[in-house]
Amino acid sequence: MFLIVIYVIFKYKGQTSLFGGKRVSKADATIAAVGEIDEFNGCLGLIIAKFENLPRFDKLTEFFPALQNDLFAIGAVLTGGKSKLDYLDARVSEMEVKIDEMEKQLPPLSNFILPGGSEIAACVHVGRSVCRRTERGIVALAEKQTIDPSIIKYFNRLSDLLFMTARLVNDRAGIKEKIWKES
C-alpha cells in the first residue's frame, strides 16, 4: 500500500511524476493520454450510476465496473507501472461477444443515427465519444513510443460496445432512433 498525496509541497512547475519518479510536463503525450483515460473513467462512472437502480439493465452493464479497473491498470502501464495487461485480449473478445449479442436484439443499421434518445442512452453516447477521443490520444502516444496494440484495440471495441449499449437502451425504452438526414 502506498500513500497518495493530493497536492505537492514543492514549487509547482506544470509537471507531474510517472511511475519511478521521472518528472514530465503536464503537456507530455503520456500525461495527455492518461488524462483522457481518467476523463473517460469518470464518464463510465456516471454511466454506472445512471444504471444503478434499473435492474432490467443489470445484464447489460454488469461488467462495467471491471472496465473501470482496466482503465486504471492501462493508465498505470502507460506511465511506467508494472500492472499486467495480459488479460486485455480476452476482455476484447468478451466485448465482441456482448456486441454480437446486442446486435441480434436490434434492427440492422442502414444509416447514421443521432446520439440521444433517453437520458441514459445520451450519457452512454457521451461516454462513447470520450472513449473514441481517448483512443485517438493513445494512438498519438503510440506514434511516439511503443504501446501494446491490445490497448488500442481495447478502446476501439469499448466504444463499439457503448454504441450498442446506447442503441439497446433506447430500444428497450421504446425510443425510436433518430436517423441523420443530410442537409
TrEMBL record:
GO terms for molecular function: ATP binding; corrinoid adenosyltransferase activity. InterPro entries: CblAdoTrfase-like, CblAdoTrfase-like_sf, PduO-typ. Pfam families: Cob_adeno_trans. Gene3D superfamilies: Cobalamin adenosyltransferase-like (1.20.1200.10). Residues 13-168 form the Cobalamin adenosyltransferase-like domain. One of its GO terms (biological process) is cobalamin biosynthetic process. Its EC number is 2.5.1.17. It is an enzyme of class 2 (transferase). Keywords: ATP-binding, Cobalamin biosynthesis, Nucleotide-binding, Transferase. It catalyses: 2 cob(II)alamin + reduced [electron-transfer flavoprotein] + 2 ATP = 2 adenosylcob(III)alamin + 2 triphosphate + oxidized [electron-transfer flavoprotein] + 3 H(+); 2 cob(II)yrinate a,c diamide + reduced [electron-transfer flavoprotein] + 2 ATP = 2 adenosylcob(III)yrinate a,c-diamide + 2 triphosphate + oxidized [electron-transfer flavoprotein] + 3 H(+). Pathway: Cofactor biosynthesis; adenosylcobalamin biosynthesis; adenosylcobalamin from cob(II)yrinate a,c-diamide: step 2/7. It comes from the Bacteria. Belongs to the Cob(I)alamin adenosyltransferase family. This is Corrinoid adenosyltransferase. It comes from Candidatus Azambacteria bacterium GW2011_GWE2_46_45.
